[in-house]
Amino acid sequence: ADQGLSPVERLRRIADYRRQVRMPSMAEQLATPMNVWEIVEFGLENEAYATQAVAEMFVQLQQQVTHPVLVIVDQWNECFPVSQYVSIRYDNTRFHGYIPAYHLTMPRALHRWDGHRFRRGLKICATSW
């Protein structure tokens, strides 16, 4: 699949491809949101930007000091097993081609929710069987 390319040529092709492909930026579409809800609403209405909206929402909730923030997560244990989704990236790993749930967008965002990063926040997690 590498078409007999040298490592240097392969890296050049990858760099060229990256210059041609541009990820959509939520900041270009929603330059000055008035509040966190506007970011959430934008992510709900524009699926291509949903991941960026989630990340930005958590950043904004980390930085604000006006309102207390509480996140309650049930079935926290479901963030750890292998998911039903497959990816070639996980072939020949202990996951046998399946993506671990904690590598998916929302579980990853919730894993990064750490009390010391939030000025007025608390996270409560519960396991369910």
Description:
- There is one protein chain.
- This protein has 129 residues and is of the alpha+beta class.
- The protein has 5 helices and 4 strands, in the order H-H-H-H-E-E-E-H-E.
- The chain has helices at 7-20, 26-29, 36-45, 50-63, 105-111; strands spanning 69-73, 82-86, 98-100, 121-125.
- The strands form 2 sheets. Strands 1-4 form a two-stranded parallel ribbon. Strands 2-3 form a two-stranded antiparallel sheet.
Q: Roughly what percent helix?
A: 25-40%
| Span between termini | 43 Å
With strands numbered from the N-terminus, the spatial order across the biggest sheet is 1-4
* Main sheet summary: 2 strands, parallel
Give a concise summary.
With 129 residues, the chain is an alpha+beta fold.
Q: What tags apply to this protein structure?
A:
129 residues, alpha+beta, two-stranded parallel sheet, two-stranded antiparallel ribbon, 4 strands, flat
Secondary structure layout plus pairing:
Blueprint: H1 7-20, H2 26-29, H3 36-45, H4 50-63, E1 69-73, E2 82-86, E3 98-100, H5 105-111, E4 121-125
Parallel strand pairs: 1-4
Antiparallel strand pairs: 2-3
Helix pairs in contact: 3-4
